[in-house]
Amino acid sequence: MERGKMAEAESLETAAEHERILREIESTDTACIGPTLRSVYDGEEHGRFMEKLETRIRNHDREIEKMCNFHYQGFVDSITELLKVRGEAQKLKNQVTDTNRKLQHEGKELVIAMEELKQCRLQQRNISATVDKLMLCLPVLEMYSKLRDQMKTKRHYPALKTLEHLEHTYLPQVSHYRFCKVMVDNIPKLREEIKDVSMSDLKDFLESIRKHSDKIGETAMKQAQQQRNLDNIVLQQPRIGSKRKSKKDTYIIFDTEIESTSPKSEQDSGILDVEDEEDDEEGARETFENYYRKQRRKQARLVLQPPSNMHETLDGYRKYFNQIVGFFVVEDHILHTTQGLVNRAYIDELWEMALSKTIAALRTHSSYCSDPNLVLDLKNLIVLFADTLQVYGFPVNQLFDMLLEIRDQYSETLLKKWAGIFRNILDSDNYSPIPVTSEEVYKKVVGQFPFQDIELEKQPFPKKFPFSEFVPKVYNQIKEFIYACLKFSEDLHLSSTEVDDMIRKSTNLLLTRTLSNSLQNVIKRKNIGLTELVQIIINTTHLEKSCKYLEEFITNITNVLPETVHTTKLYGTTTFKDARHAAEEEIYTNLNQKIDQFLQLADYDWMTGDLDNKASDYLVDLIAFLRSTFAVFTHLPGKVAQTACMSACKHLATSLMQLLLEAEVRQLTLGALQQFNLDVRECEQFARSGPVPGFQEDTLQLAFIDLRQLLDLFIQWDWSTYLADYGQPNCKYLRVNPVTALTLLEKMKDTSRKNNMFAQFRKNERDKQKLIDTVAKQLRGLISSHHS
Q1: Where is the domain boundary, 394, 428, 455?
Q2: What domain count does the chain have?
Q3: Chain segment 552-571, per-residue pLDDT in tens
Q4: Are residues 724 and 610 in the same domain?
Q5: What are the coiled-coil residue ranges (predicted)?
Q6: Are 481 and 414 spatial neighbours (Cβ–Cβ below 8 Å)?
């Protein structure tokens, strides 16, 4: 039963699949039917599929037959109707042919009449055209006759104008007539003749202005300089009026130069009129414009090419500027006295090119200048150059922008110069207070440097200033630097605020970079002594106090109050503080190096059992050196002297501890430890004596507290107290580290074993060794518990 059901299900699936394949064959192109048929033969029921396919074909054949039977009668009716229409079409064709033949016959007379009307109108149009052409020819003949008369009378410039009208206005209208050929053939000859004469005059003119450009420029710049000086003297007149006057005067000079070089035959209109008249003739104008502008561009390139050694002297720059000014004065004069030869667009383009090349040349050559005086003179010359050209309407803002760049270079050259000045001042200073023996000398120093000290004023002569000579010298050189910066800002059309900002920024560079580096170099010298370092600290302290006077000095010369918004502050205080701190650090380092040198002389006998009852010689000498050194620190600020003293004591204590614990000391005796204790007591005595005032009681002794507690522990052998109180805040031996104690104890234990090798059977020695082992074990326990 179940098997039958399964067979029936499979049969249904096969039938459905065959039905799908048949639909796909019916709806798919013939080219794509191969995969479908392959799927049939891949199966096992292709026989049954063939039966279904034959059945499907028979069904389609029956449907086709039914459709053909249904439409057959309509097809027969359509053929019958078509045969009936054929006769009617033939009748219509015959009627159209007859109608066309009648129309052609009846319209023949009308066509003949239209041809006659066409000929009449053509004749009328030809007569009108002939009259118009004759009217065009009459002005041409009149203009040509006028041109011939002008050429005979050698009036070339009116002839050019006539030639222009004739060639461009009249002849193009009648050029196809043969009688115009003679005119056309003669016009090029006439034009060439006029061009040759005019071109010769133009070349002479170009050569003349080339030769005289530098003189014209020199005269223009002199006029601008004289007018500027006059403006500064007389009531500060408006700058515009002075510029106009200078321009007029320069034109007079220019016209004089032209008159001396112009051809005498051109007295009716002058050489510039030649160019002006040429502008009226289109072809000649283009030729003359192109030639003139091409030659002037060549001259401009030669003028704008600076000599290779221009940066060596100011005269080189002056000659360069004279040529440029003369060139553009001529161009401006031609622009305002002629029409068409040059225009504003051409001059602006030429000026833009010249301005960029000039600025590039100045940037390159000014970068070679290492003398600030030459840079300053160059700046004044550039300002005069810009003012002169501004008179003639040329924009010169880029030149003033470039001057701001040169200002930065000027500042750098000043900084280099003052670096050498500061170096010489610091190298030549004796780093000793300035002695004064009279009131005159005292006032001279006070006049150079703002210093007030009532107590010093009350002292009788001779007396000493606290600072050395480099203080007033450096202060005055800073003021000289400020004056030098101010000179550059003149005539740059800057506001007072901008000048003040420029001076302050440059001064800050001088202080923070140049002077700071000079001071640092002096401080870092290998051979500098403590006395010099102390004097440097005193000097920088007084220079720091003088910074407010420098602020006032800048305010007085710029008239800009320090309270003004965005006013740059001087960084002199920071500079001198940094130098002072560097000197202080150098003092601390120097002191520590001296202490190390004394400690190298230490020669302890760690195995001795004898006690000298006095401190070691090297330590006595070291203490004496420290006392004499700190006596020099009386003029230093209190904190500096105290810090130096505390630093020296801490370094001494640390070095002594390292000396006691160093690995080379493998064994030591109690006697050696007691001798070391005497040296530490000497250090403590030095600390209690107050070598530098200002310390609170026992503060300086705290530097040796680690050594003191360690030595007391071993000398008194107070291990029970140490071990019992360890970790308590009020412990007697709070500063003793168990690791340090264990290290020192191991050295004493090794000594005890070595010296008592044959006495180990004595009860006291055995007990002592046993005690050392017990203490060492407990110390290791403390160390391990602390780490855990």
Answers
A1: 394
A2: 4
A3: 888 888 887 766 655 667 77
A4: yes
A5: 82-109
A6: yes
Asked whether residue 103 is assigned to any structural domain, the reply reads no
Q: Give the span between the Cα atoms of 170 and 136, in whole angstroms.
A: 7
Q: How far apart are CA 14 and CA 22, in angstroms?
A: 12
Q: What are the 10-residue block averages of pLDDT along the chain, 788 residues in total?
A: 67 78 75 70 73 85 86 81 79 85 80 86 88 80 82 71 81 78 79 74 79 84 81 52 44 46 35 45 67 83 82 83 86 80 84 86 81 85 86 86 83 89 89 87 87 83 86 90 86 82 86 86 81 83 85 84 66 78 81 85 78 80 85 71 84 87 82 84 84 77 85 85 83 86 79 49 65 81 75
- Position 344 in a domain: yes
Residues 321 and 224 grouped into a single domain: yes
Integer Cα distance of 303 and 368 in angstroms: 21
Of 647, 635, 631, 535, the closest CA to residue 591 belongs to: 647
At position 193, the amino acid (one-letter code) is E
Q: Are 568 and 532 in contact (CB under 8 A)?
A: no
Say whether both 527 and 417 belong to one domain: yes
The pLDDT of residue 661 is 83
On whether the CB atoms of residues 441 and 475 are closer than 8 A, the answer is no
Q: What is the pLDDT of residue 753?
A: 53
pLDDT of residue 235: 41
Length of the chain counted residue by residue: 788
- Rounded Cα–Cα distance for residues 149 and 650 (Å): 118
Q: Which of 494, 519, 537 is the last residue of a domain?
A: 537
> Domain check: are 436 and 310 in the same one?
no
Same domain, 445 and 373: no
Question: Looking at residue 13, what is its pLDDT?
Answer: 77
Judged on CB neighbours under 10 Å (0-12, 13-18, 19+), 544 is middle
Q: Is 255 domain-assigned?
A: no
Residue 691 · residue 645 · CB < 8 Å: yes
Residue 563 and residue 716: Cα distance in Å, rounded? 69
Using alpha carbons, list the distances in angstroms from residue 768 to 86, 364, 426, 444, 756. Answer: 157, 89, 66, 79, 11
Residue ranges making up the domain that contains 433:
409-537
| Predicted pLDDT at 562 | 67
CATH number of the domain encompassing residue 499: 1.10.357.30
DSSP string, 233-260: HTTT--HHHHHHHHHHHHHHHHHHHHHH
Q: What per-residue confidence (pLDDT) applies to 1?
A: 59
Question: Would 770 be classed as within a structural domain?
Answer: yes
pLDDT score recorded for residue 283: 58
Same domain membership, residue 420 and residue 369: no
d(C-alpha 157, C-alpha 274), whole Å: 7
Q: Please, what is the Cα angle at 84 between 82 and 90, to 5 degrees?
A: 100
Question: Do both 202 and 321 map to the same domain?
Answer: yes
What is d(CA 669, CA 715) in angstroms, rounded to the nearest whole number? 11
What pLDDT does 424 receive? 92
Say what the pLDDT of residue 750 is.
56
User: Residue 476's pLDDT is what?
Assistant: 92
Residue with tokens 């000290």: 453
The CATH number of the domain holding residue 618 is: 1.20.58.670
Residues 713 and 758 occupy one common structural domain? yes
Q: Which of 743, 718, 782 is nearest to 658 (CA)?
A: 743
